[in-house]
Design brief:
CATH class of the largest domain in chain A: Alpha Beta
Number of helices of chain A: 16
CATH architecture of the largest domain in chain A: 2-Layer Sandwich
CATH topology of the largest domain in chain A: Uridine Diphospho-n-acetylenolpyruvylglucosamine Reductase, domain 3
Number of strands of chain A: 18
Oligomer: homodimer
Largest interface: A-B, 99 and 99 residues
Strand order of the largest sheet of chain A: 15-12-14-13-17-18-16
Chain lengths: 472, 472
């Protein structure tokens, strides 16, 4: 990376040089003053004011801004819906923020190919609705759906609740238009599922957290709208039975299985204490699992779901279950799983983690991590839940009543346990700046070196989101 | 690329220098003389004898060989099962061939995570069988299953018959061990479905046709074995109805839909003329489609399949259908689709193409391409079939009785039509050398430049498979 970029001295001159070189085409993208929302993402880091904010309306404007920034060596932080949790979209002092918020809209829905072409700033929920209006389904779903932008979803390879069936953004993006740091607009807007013509450049940018290029347009893969949805909350006596239930669900529900969310009892307790959340089960169990299946036909898939649950009872795998009778039951069951969004109010400040682990090792990890957190900080608590069919465990750790929270000690305890289990420090939220020092816990030195080579090849001046994910 | 590599002068000296520098560790990987099988892949190009053949038994040997070749600037052509169709694994004069044929074996099956770890030279069929023995399913399937190696399947991002349900190799590889041209062994052997820790380096190598690194190990994603399989051959009156049938199948069969193979009447005619192939329908139709669904339970999914076909009849979408009553019927139906493997005998020499197109445009393309082939060469014929649900059309073109076939004129006619339709010159077979001059028909200049940047970053001396896919 150009040493000067991380050196604040001279940044004002660089910015002046950049603004002077900006073509007319891009001048009206400058937004002054910078609104408070553009000073941070959803991470717990303090806000940061960029030297300037640009809100371009076209890929051509993005290209002109990047070319000028590159020539003047001004750092650029791309911004989408600013709902990331790891500081990836937080501005850099002396650098510019480049928000895609004015590049919104659905350009085409191709029903025969089951694809949708969208501008990168389009909110996820708008895309979900537009697909539904045509009897189609865009499968990505996450809590921030109303605010997050599809370009940010791609940049962070977002996952969410239904990865077990439909995959992550990496699986849902067929084509992309990306602007490179030097201002080159790369048109790779393919609608094709199969396209073996050289390197898959689109995959380079998905999950790169805005460090390699700025995504401006996407071609998304759609699915048919599900014809019916069934869910159950199951109580189980130990983790081996949770794994048996997952195996049974994969076998008997087949590809209709659309979610498999395990909740450890410590999570279940704090979730059911959230006002408005109803516990669908009468007794407490060692483990609780939310299973969802999306079928095509109530008359066929309703009985299949019941037969599956009956078989799991008969085999002694589940102890108890509440079964949805309606879509509002399905929503109520998700209410327990989604209660974590309210924990800021009910638990107070806490740290959230999203780790990746082989499914079979999750309970062993939860035990070890719970002990590590309790040992690392007096009064340290932690609760566990997650998309275990995808190998993704979420956990929250905190010290009740402590202000500030001992964040670094909690991070150390959690990530040291992840490393000991050979897991991933981020299954879905990404690295940004908050997990950067732990990246080496999950990636080999050779992988890190390879990432640096890619970064240097695509962004030789290190202007794009410098200091995020990895240093070149 | 180092200019010297494509210059045959000095290659003997370079090879001598490489052999002299080879550590003891790698010396016994040298195989002399070179067996005839290693002189070519399944492309129609003439065989080529490499300066030496190495058959290493470990990633460490691969690393030592690559490091020595890199230092001496000797070109290296990686080889798997040598079943590629585009010359990607064909040796280069003066270069060495590096065959993974002795690196075979299944190292682990993790049932809870539904993953399998294998060495890159392992034949696909062995992997399919090992999964089946555990009640699991490895979904990749293609005609060369008995000979092709899984490392080559990854290197070419193989697709095959069931992409519509399970995806291509890009979707089936969770982790990889790759040796870079400089001999660095990159361990990225993750079993995790969700792993957002920096760039997805594994995706760089999948589909790169051995030009960026040598894949030595893979972690593969497994699925539960299907509980039942149903198939039908449907006759339809026009292409709009084929698209309607695909839409209906997606909606009513949901994710159980595992294949949707359309065959144009010209294909149907030559397929049914292959000895041993039985036409399951009584009358000829404008279009014929093979539909397959893999379910979990005969009692549920059998009636679902029948109800789907009845609805398609009632809606006037299909004119006629033969429905499988047994697995042997399913195989017989696939017999018509797989008859193309015998066309070398029944049609004589012909050129095979695998193009990518949006589903809605396939019939328009077929008409235009048929006319272009007939116009380009006197007596030129072409037949059309393919995985249309994946946007992948296959076609064969030839001049009956001509020897040699006017290959270049046929290529020009086909690829010019692909370009006019904005399609892909290769949906699954890859580029190798045979399609290299047409790569720019499907990729923008900016995409090609980006590919070159990646190539130069990972293989600065241009020793890995030089002259294949793209020139750096």
């Amino acid at each position: 990376m150009d040493g000067g970029i991380s050196n604040p001295a001279g940044t004002a001159e660089r910015l002046a040089q950049m603004l002077a070189a900006l073509p007319d085409l891009a001048r009206d993208a400058l937004v002054d003053p910078v609104p408070p929302r553009n000073l941070n993402d959803w991470s717990a880091l303090p806000p940061e004011t960029p030297a300037a904010l640009f809100c371009p309306r076209s890929a051509e404007q993005v290209a002109a801004i990047l070319a000028a920034a590159n020539a003047a060596r001004v750092p650029v932080v791309p911004q989408g819906g600013l709902t990331g949790l790891c500081g990836g979209a937080r501005p850099i002092a002396g650098g510019i923020a480049l928000s895609l918020e004015k590049m919104t809209g659905i350009e085409e829905i191709d029903e025969a190919s089951a694809t949708m072409t969208v501008l990168a700033g389009t909110p996820l929920e708008l895309i979900q609705r537009a697909a539904a209006e045509r009897g189609l389904f865009f499968s990505l779903d996450l809590g921030a759906r109303g605010s997050c932008a599809i370009g940010g979803n791609a940049g962070t390879n977002a996952g969410g609740n239904r990865v077990i069936r439909y995959g992550m953004m990496r699986d849902l993006v067929l084509g992309a238009e990306v602007v490179l740091p030097d201002g080159t607009i790369v048109n790779a807007l393919s609608k094709l599922i199969k396209n073996n013509t050289g390197y898959d450049v689109r995959q380079l940018f998905i999950g790169s957290e805005g460090t390699l290029g700025v995504i401006t347009r996407l071609v998304l893969k759609l699915h048919p709208a599900p014809g019916c949805t069934h869910a159950a909350i199951c109580g189980l006596s130990d983790y081996d039975k949770v794994v048996d239930l997952l195996r049974g669900a994969r076998r008997k529900l087949g590809p209709t299985l659309s979610a498999f969310e395990a909740m450890w009892p410590d999570y279940w307790e704090v979730a059911c204490a959230v006002p408005g959340v109803r516990d669908p089960l009468e007794a407490r169990h060692a483990h609780t699992v939310l299973i969802e299946a999306q079928g095509t036909d109530e008359a066929i898939d309703g009985p299949r779901f019941m037969a599956f649950l009956e078989a799991m009872f008969e085999e002694g795998i589940i102890e108890d279950a509440a079964i949805s009778q309606s879509l509002s039951d399905v929503q109520a069951f998700w209410g327990v799983r989604d209660a974590c969004a309210e924990f800021k109010t009910t638990l107070g400040p806490h740290h959230a983690y999203d780790v990746g682990l082989p499914t079979g090792q999750m309970d062993g990890f939860a035990r070890a991590c719970r002990a590590a957190v309790a040992e690392a900080v007096p009064g340290g608590r932690s609760v566990y839940y997650g998309h275990i069919g995808d190998g993704n465990l979420h956990l929250l750790a905190w010290v009740p009543g402590a202000a500030p929270q001992p964040g670094e000690a909690l991070d150390e305890a959690v990530y040291a346990t992840v490393r000991a289990f050979g897991g991933s420090v981020s299954a879905e939220h990404g690295i940004g700046t908050t997990k950067k020092k732990y990246l080496e816990f999950s990636r080999s030195p050779e992988e890190l070196d390879l990432m640096r080579r890619v970064k240097r090849a695509l962004d030789p001046n290190g202007i794009l989101n410098p200091g995020k994910v990895i240093d070149a």
